[in-house]
Amino acid sequence: MKRLACILILSLAALTAGAQVYVATDKSCYVAGDRIWCSLFSAPGPAVAYLELRSSEGTAARARIALEQGRGGGSIQIPAVTPTGNYRLAAYTEGSEPAGPVLSVFNTLGTARVKGGVEIAGDGEALPAPKDIQTGYGFSVSDSGSLELRNTSGAPVSFCVSLYREDSLPAPAYRSISGFVPGSPATQEEGEVLCARLAGADADAVADYADTNTPGLRALLAAPGTGDNCYSAVKDPDGLFRFRTDNIYGDCDVVCMLEDVDPASDCHLELVSPFRYPAPSDLPVLRLYRGSAPDLERRTAAMLHGVSSDTLAVTLPMHRSHFLLEHECISYILDDYVRFPTMEEVFVEITPNVKMRKRKGVTHVYVLLQTPVSESVPQWGEALAMIDGVPVPDQSLIRTYDPAIVKVVEVYPYRYNFGGSIHGGVLNLVTFKGNMPGVLFDDNVRIYGFEGCSWPEEHRGGETLYWHPLLTLGPGESLTLPSEGMEPGVRYVLCAEGLADGVRPVHLRKSFVR
Q1: Is the whole-model pTM more than 0.70?
Q2: Residue at 367 is within a domain
Q3: What CATH number corresponds to the domain at position 393?
């Protein structure tokens, strides 16, 4: 008996080792072009998780999901060119091993298939008959005119819920949260740490010079927009710049630049990808049935038609204190004034608390600082100049910038410590487009396309009638689920998965005909 117990313990440890992230999806079968709605569970601590939709032929799609106290939600878009086959949706954080469910993808817009991953059933082979399912623990459901989900676990539950239409498409084996072990909690990280390295023919020379001089080599990373995504980092001994962000959301551009580096040198920053591209294991072969054609046509029509969703960004608050969010600024909406042809004239005629001067051929921007009334002499500080929230070290770009594309001039008349440097105020030019149009940077500045964190969203309509990634219920509390769009005689599946008290898995899976 002792030996059997040891074997069981070792087997359980093997199943849960490294499985510190669990990802739940709205369903398990999709058509190419669909969106996979996700809810993540992990031990509290990590600020972001990485998702990859992988087959034996590589990664079809990937996404970042922000985490707050071990919970997060978002989505991953399946490209329309994704081959038909089974895929592993691998989810992981920096300190965990990739793990996730098997999902089936059907490409109804092309003939591409995963090599060796698809087989065709015979003409006379019947589709598997649907089965009634009701399994789980910690939830109960009643269907007396409306669907009501009740928490029977005896503890507060954080969970996700999905209500979707079941059809003839062969689904992978069901996988629930029941065996998930979150692991030990840690201090909540503020956001993702983005890493960059030096690249270019002069990278070694620049690094050697920086290592033997004080201060060390400093770099900036910023995403154009509101100004709250601007970060600074110094080179670590291992040669990497680590930007500690507060998670950047949505797909955007990020600007990477080096401070105090000769513009003529061939040296720039190169972002390091955090994705691991794990090889999927034990992917079953996807079996295709000719009788599934009507369901595939219906799903394709629903995918092309589109559905509604609501962003739930308020559930994942920002942690980091940011100067441009905490301080009031003086805003000049330029359309309220006579338009002038140069920014220098704008500062003279419109913004009396900003001035521009040249010293030894170098342009400097100054801001009139707010000082106590007792100080009779006004103080002008050398400002940090920004365009759409991105620092502009070469302030001659401000002098030559076209004021016709500037919507607002924002002035922060306070001293600002950014990346270890003290600036006498901040000047931010907000353009109409918000993406720094017309800015010509030096060659050592790089702009990269960036796949930011996916927003958590509530989803309604289509094949998934209802999806919510981040719900909570107290002991004995219930939730009435939307049931609009349900058709009589059609089979549906209700699935809820979560953690009671943050550690105990609870789940429910029930199929029924309306």
Answers
A1: yes
A2: yes
A3: 2.170.130.10
